[in-house]
Amino acid sequence: MSSDPGLSARSELAVRGVAVDLGPSIPLRRPGGAGPSADGHVLVDGLKTTIPINPASPYRLKDGRLVRTGPDGGVTDLGVDVDTVARPAFYDLTTADGVPYEKIARLHGNDVLATTVVQTCVRYDEPDRCRFCAIEQSLRTGATTAVKTPEQLAEVAEAAVRLDGVRQMVLTTGTSNGRDRGARHLARCVRAIKAAVPGLPIQVQCEPPAPSDLGAIADLHDAGADAIGIHVESLDDAVRARWMPGKASVPLSQYWLAWDESVRLFGPNAVSTYLIVGLGEDPDELVAGAAQLVDRGVYPFVVPYRPIPGTLAFADGDPAPDPELLAEVTARVAKVLVAAGMRGADQAAGCAACGACSALSAAGG
């Protein structure tokens, strides 16, 4: 396990969360979404952090500090400052066509605007559905809209920058039936946002386009995207088949083609992918795969599997990983990143630039 107390604390929080009775004291919440997200946004020692609200957690917030309740009822101050993030002002506005801004895009951390531009996915029905994904859950509860238009996103982005000091934006999408996997709608959205807020860095996220349509990646670059995430979640085919049966039909060779083309266009450390700890992949193989990604210029964004209501894995009772395992893997991957001179904080926009869902930033990655 890592001996870094900051990394250990963030790993513990990422897995165990904080007690549910603190829900009202964490104003910025995201109850569901397209990937391994959590639903409370705070700053831990100044670093963006997302944490589950968990009634069984021994952790609580007290006077801006993280405390732990022991089995005997004693409370220990862990020496970690925790600041909450205020509800942003742009949430109170409505688009020109009558949609609340909060249904178009959400604040992540204290300065990242994020949205799923198409909230449906061709892989969401069983047996193709990713077991950790709840992309359509927020749509079914009415928390968002199925498709965000370029005009809506440009309007919300401008307000979020002006009113709340947003510094970067992340655009992800459910997968479409098209060969571009939804990339060209992302490109239209990027163009509109850049026209409204030229200086706002943007990361786009999608599945690898079909090999016959790799030009869709160039379209994203030409539209003005600053970074791209192509998320594989695991490099172990057995894990992929169990956890992401639909996505597993896309061979890893296709991911490598898309990553290499993305690095060629966007440059090293501007391309990233999620690697999820807790899906059953051998830790040594996960770290080795991360090192291979780093060698190709791709940033491996290491996050824990989180049991999110509305997902198949949650319904099956799949547990989150052991915090010590998460801290160990994160520390090892961070060491590889540091040796290569790759830091999430050096990226213009995206999940790694935000860092909230991972403990890598606490370990120098």
Give an overview of the whole structure.
The strands form two sheets. The protein has a seven-stranded mixed sheet. It has a five-stranded antiparallel sheet with strand order 2-1-5-4-3, covered by helices on one side. It has a single domain (about 95-365), classed as TIM Barrel, CATH 3.20.20. Helix 1 (about 5-15) packs across helix 10 (about 325-340), helix 3 (about 150-165) crosses helix 4 (about 185-195) and helix 8 (about 285-295) packs parallel to helix 10. The model has no long low-confidence stretch (mean pLDDT about 90). Strand 9, helix 5 and strand 10 form a beta-alpha-beta unit. It has about 375 residues and is an alpha/beta fold. It is globular and about 60 Å long. It has eleven helices and twelve strands. InterPro entries: Aldolase_TIM, Elp3/MiaA/NifB-like_rSAM, F420, rSAM, rSAM_MSMEG0568, rSAM_sf. One of its GO terms (molecular function) is 7,8-didemethyl-8-hydroxy-5-deazariboflavin synthase activity. Its cofactor is [4Fe-4S] cluster.
Properties at a glance:
globular, 365 residues, 5-stranded antiparallel sheet
Total helical elements: 11
Which residues sit in consecutive blocks of at least 5 with pLDDT less than 50? none
Measured between the Cα atoms of the first and last residue, the distance is: 17 Å
CATH superfamily: Aldolase class I
Count the domains. 1
Q: At the third CATH level, what is the topology name?
A: TIM Barrel
Order of helices and strands: HEEEEEEEHHEHEHEHHEHEHHH
Which band does the percent of strand residues land in?
Answer: 15-25%
Gyration radius over CA: 19 Å
> What structural class do you assign from the helix and strand content?
alpha/beta
What global shape is seen? globular
Strand line-up of the largest beta sheet = 6-7-8-9-10-11-12
* CATH class descriptor: Alpha Beta
Q: What's the average pLDDT?
A: 90
Taking the sheet with the most strands, its summary is: 7 strands, mixed
CATH architecture: Alpha-Beta Barrel
Number of strands: 12
